[in-house]
Amino acid sequence: IQYMPPCLQNQTATPEYILAEMDHAGIDMAVLQNPKAYGKLNTYIGRCVAQYPDRFVGLAEVDELNAGNPSEVDRLRDAVERLGLKGIYFEATAFAQAGDPSGFNASSLDPFWDAVSDLRVPVFWSLTGSRMSAHDYMERIRSLSLWLDMHSDIVTVMVHGLFARPFRKEDKVRFPEDLMAFFRRPNVYAEILYPIQVGPLGWEYPFSQARELIRQQVEEIGAQKLIWGSDMPNVLRNCTYRQSLTYVRDWCEFIDPADMSLILGGNIAR
Predict the structure, then answer these.
(1) Cβ neighbours of 221 (radius 10 Å)
(2) CB 122 within 8 A of CB 155
(3) Nearest 10 degrees: CA dihedral of 217, 85, 150, 156?
(4) H helices within 185-229, ranges in order?
(5) At CA 17, angle to CA 78 and CA 161, rounded to 5?
(6) Model confidence at 57, in pLDDT bands (50, 70, 90)?
(7) 166-191: b or e for each residue (b if 16 or more CB lie within 10 Å)?
(8) What residues contact 74, with CB distance under 8 A and at least 6 apart?
(9) How far apart are CA 144 and CA 138, in angstroms?
(10) Is pLDDT at 188 greater than 90 in this prediction?
(11) Strand pairing of 172-173 and 168-169?
(12) How far apart are CA 81 and CA 75, in angstroms?
């Protein structure tokens, strides 16, 4: 089954290929995220970052269900201190698949979170699923809010940001106030990542429906909390890499230049 876009005929995306796409789209730097669907790639991503330090920032992959084990804590420290990775891609969905959606709050993971705090690296949280209901999504948000109460010093980035599909009714998306309040919390950032989300909804470039969601987030959460992302190369199933940037940069005229600079790089660099 060819899940990836047709340009990845061998199911590979080399650093040089990604750099060529970045140059074509006008992207200075990229954050390399590491979901397990792509493999356990800490060493590989570390090599990519070492080879192109001015173009790539890498995130570490961890074994979430066993994160509290000393061996996994050591692997995290190695990824940050030796391989030079700058954050963690944390698939909290693993706990839901194991029957305990809020398992990342278990005391057995305290050694891991202590190490994250000590290393001063952000956590990029993956909480969503393609067929997730609004109820299940909000339950996970509430569980993560409890985690934030205990670990308020750790920077949290929500990959896929405010997830649109569970809240879509008659082609309109209405986010509940509880969700907006979560993203107003200190140290919480939302990824702006709609082309990869809304392809199955039939939304087409320049994604006017998504622009209205971004407008709401700028007004109610603030541009200083938003981080543009693409999910390149997977996004090529729905639009080009450049289009995944320009639907925000060129079409969201309601965002002033200073705020646009934050969304398109300033926030993630900080």
Answers:
(1) 20
(2) yes
(3) 0
(4) 194-198, 208-220
(5) 65
(6) very high
(7) bbeeeeebebeeebeebbeeeebbbb
(8) none
(9) 10
(10) yes
(11) antiparallel
(12) 10
Average pLDDT over residues 154-183: 93
CA 85 to chain centre: 15
* CA neighbours closer than 13 Å in the CB half-sphere of residue 245: 15
| Alpha-carbon span 90 to 3, nearest angstrom | 22
Average pLDDT (195-215) is 90
| pLDDT band at residue 129 using 50, 70 and 90 as cut-offs | confident
Cβ 161 vs Cβ 188: under 8 Å: no
For residue 260, give the nearest of 224, 233, 217, 232 by alpha carbon. 224
**Helix or strand or coil: residue 232?**
coil
pTM: 0.96
Token pair listed for 226: 């938003």
Length of the chain: 270
